[in-house]
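quick one before i forget lol
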Amino acid sequence: MNMSHGETVIQKPINEYAVYLKSLLPANIPDTYALKPMFKNISSEENIRNGVIAFRDFMYLFCDRLISDGHLYAKPQKTKNQLDYPFLKNMNHLLIDIGYNGSLNESGESLLISEIPSFTDIKPKIPASKQMEYLRFLALCGFVFTGIDLDVKTFHMPDGFLKISYPNAPVMLAGLKALSMAAVELWVRFYNNANDLFRCDYRVMKAEDTDLLDVLKDMIYLLPENIQRFALELHKRYIDKEMTCAVINDTATHFAYAYTKNSRRPLSPRDIYSRRIWEFEVSMKYGYCIVVRSKNTDKYADLIKTFPLFLREKIAAGYGCDRKLRNEPCQGGCQGIRIPLNDSTVAMKRDIELWLDHEVPSS
């Protein structure tokens, strides 16, 4: 969901966003899975898989560097989208350019590149005055650029090609190459997350579909075991009730559930998201939540009276535009009734199940 609702806000410092970004990285990347044929010309499948893990580890280092030094590169600004950090957006484009346009040398230990579109296009995404700053930051994270002087003010592409290496884990370059190809050729834009390399979403590269239960486990692995267990049981309950699940990544991660059994056409993840009845969500602003878009509460009002006070009040308040409903600043109320995913919610497990049960159409 696009975080912009027309109101100007001050961003959180980029180091806080880096902590959040680090939490989104997949913790448990398998070392055995088959790749789509389009990736097999890059390197061996083993190298690519190991390279993806190495890129994830690079992202840990990248986030740690942002946590310690990010304030030197990006100051909080007034914006209508509090998660719009130009430095990160441009860095995302630069890394994709390096991976997509670079060619691995024979040993696989360097990328050779003759153009960097975000630098060299007629209207480059990264202005000339900032380009060396981006390369210097990558150098702090372990990249080596052979053929240029990082101390000069203006970037100039060397004659022939620029040689880029990553001595800490050379195999990372194969992972970067494959993930960049996926970003350009396979990833689907949803709101403002076009080609977001930072999530290290290797799953789109797999020849076979990923079990959504594994995706959910990766999303909630930082939570206490009892809350993880609650989330996994809720997922199984509504999959067993024939709900369809889709994962959507934008500035947040949405694990959305919709009843689509009667649909007359195949539905995309975006279609499923638009029809969602409820979802798990993790975002920088709200943390881990359950978000419910209940529509039938008048049909089971007597049941609602038996719920804990907190849940009764949440349901009674409803959801919709905060400005229109309550004359309050936007709090994302249009997305649904938001319940924090914590111990208190686990204690209401049976009530939440009854609530959701009455919102799911009968088979």
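fyi The CA atoms of residues 35 and 45 lie 7 Å apart.
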